[in-house]
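Teaching note: in complex prediction, the entire set of molecules is handled at once rather than each chain in isolation. The prompt given to students was simply: 'Predict the structure of this complex.' The entities are:
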Amino acid sequence: MNYTIALAGNPNSGKTTLFNELTGAKQHVGNWPGVTVDKKEGIYKKNKNIYIMDLPGTYSLSPYSEEEVIARNYIVNDRPDVVIDIVDGTNIERNLYLALQIIETGMPAVIAMNMMDEVEKSGNKIDCKKLSELLGIPVVPIVARNARGVDELMDAAVFAAESYKTPKFLQVFDENINSAIDAIADILEYEHSESGYSSAEISEYSDSQNLWKAIKIVENDQLVIDTLTENQKIAVEKIITETEQYADGDTEAKIADLRYKFISGLVKKTVIKSKTGHVETRSDKLDKILTNRILALPIFAVVMYILFACTFSENFLFIDGLPSPGVWLADVVETAWGALTDTVGELISGASPVVYSLVVDGIFEGIGAVIGFLPLILILYMLISILEDCGYMARIAFVMDRIFRKFGLSGKSFIPLLMGFGCGVPGIMATRTLDTEKDRTITTIVTTFMPCGAKIPIFAMFVSTFFATGNKTLITFSLYMLGIIVAIVVALLLNKFVYKSGTSNFVMELPRYRVPTFRSVIFHGWEKVKGFAVKAGTIIFLSTILIWSLSNFNVDSFNGVNAAENEDGSNLAEMDESFLASFGNAIAPVFKPLGFGEWKPAVGVVTGWIAKEMVVVTFAQLYDDDVTPEYLEGYFSKYDSVELEEFGFENGEYDPDEAFDIYSEVVLFEGADENALHTMKQDIKTDIAAYSYMVFNLLCMPCFAAVGAMRRELKTFRRTGGAVAIQMLTAYIVAFVIYQVGSFIA
Amino acid sequence: MSLAMVAPGEIREICDFKGKEEMKRRLKDLGFIKGQTVHVLGENQDGLILLVKGVKIAVNKGLAQMIIVK
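The expected output is the structure of the full assembly:
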């Protein structure tokens, strides 16, 4: 027999740990409420016929957040064979609130009483057998972290699925509410028998389904009420109004109250507490320091500094030239990819020029651009995962809330924005843990205003060419600040004019501090990189081929003119005569008020959508008068063989065939040549125009990979289009103001 | 009085809620109901750390203002 077992439970109850234990999957386990934002499926490692579904962590089955709706729709509509509700034994009262609601759905259910080791350590006792009798479903004590009791749990779950024993209706509510539930269930029942189903079809299943629906209707659950017919709504309305009178005017509150009362009764009968009252724990002591009104922000700033230094620093631990783990790994990967590209290039050197160009210049270059910063993402996420796992991230959200509230966002928006400094894609993915639709949408839109890792080469090249004599660090820093300020202003404006709402409130569980496990940290980093590589990879791959095609073909490619003119007989066109150039020419006038209304910079903006650092590569290709073989040889002749090897020349020997790639992707990315591409000054005439160009690339539509992530979070193409339009408009306005005002002053 | 005015270290009992339905529901799911005791563990400029049903929960002061305690 095949069975599907769903795992439900409060955030932080150990669901994902149990899921990993059951399936052998390496899902990430965080100490941050809301790790499982989507449902995940796996196969039980000890029985291939059992599917395990990990549902998002929820506090209840009311439909007020996306996670709750996902979890409850799965339980109620997809009907797994059995639901395992994971209850954190150290936190039993609050956790049983969800358990009661799961029992109400009438699904066969089993409670996994997790963290029993911590319960024992605290000296408390939970009588699982007694609790099982009182709830009418099996209660199995487990320790998910070391698999204690997990086999017994699965036996109980499989038995519950086989016997398909629906739990009995518990006497939780009072007479008033019970009679309302019965009356509404009758109305639902009546409709069913009218609908022409045979009585066999209106089985036990629809009975329990109706009972659950009736409870939800009494609870004023809009999603369920919306499924009623007009006649039903009228009948139900009367019952609800009547019930309300006997429930002190608020049935919902009354139901919650009765559920909690029932739970206190259960706890009294089944839990023996060693101590009463609250005893200060180590977590409390840490919180006194880490959330202290004076120390919190300085400590946080230090933690952030360490995080970024480990990921991006070229002078790690303040030692000149020592790369951070992130930078070092990125170098290794880039070198390896370069070698692979060369090997493939040699292998297909006999192929037609079109194939060669597509593979080497199109596919390998495009993917190489992305692969270079995967290691940075890996390191950044491993570090973020340490912060999550240990429980500090929830405190950061709390501490930052005070500041973010002023901009109409919640403290939880901090995490996506922080990730946006590394890469917008995972940043956007992280918006799903936010509470409200408004917070999620606004944060998704402003996350890509952050100067991500891929935008840094753009800044480096322009700053070194245009601001060689100025304070380079200050110029770059001003771009970072500008990204943050624009994000704040756009968030404020969206709040005021689009959502017209006040700020939402902040409420978040602060989990106990825990020591992160090595396994979890490694796998979290790996998962994120894998997810990014797969999702972003497809988009990048397709868009790379598209841009490559546009930049290598023109009309003459298809009428034989190019083939006749080219020495090698291929139909490829020069980039400055390609479709892309025509397109650049067409859109260039739009950028005139921003100070760069020429086709080459316009094309740079477009190729930047593949990956932002492509702007630099494109400039090197388009302003190739500056990068003649003679220029390259002259430039590199300044360096000795050790330095040449560091640049990426094999054995430290200058190789004219390699020189262009190394120049565009190493020298320009790092802004190491102050005379670089000076002919671009014909198109971008002033420093202000150069600054405006950097600003436009910082703020405009992010790369296709990030747009793909936005589409995932915003759900519809219409809303994604709207978000991109806002980003383009913002970029245009800000660059416009900077160029016009700047030129006026200058 | 509102929960926002309670000093750290004190334990109070919830007697009413103000504000939007949506927030009340969220609070309800986290164990904030009438008659429930709340232990204020700590505070900063704009937030409180509370202990409700043995769980630590952080809220901003604006939200705490909507929880009436005695």
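Point out the following to students. The radius of gyration of chain B is 11 Å. The longest helix of chain B spans residues 21-29.
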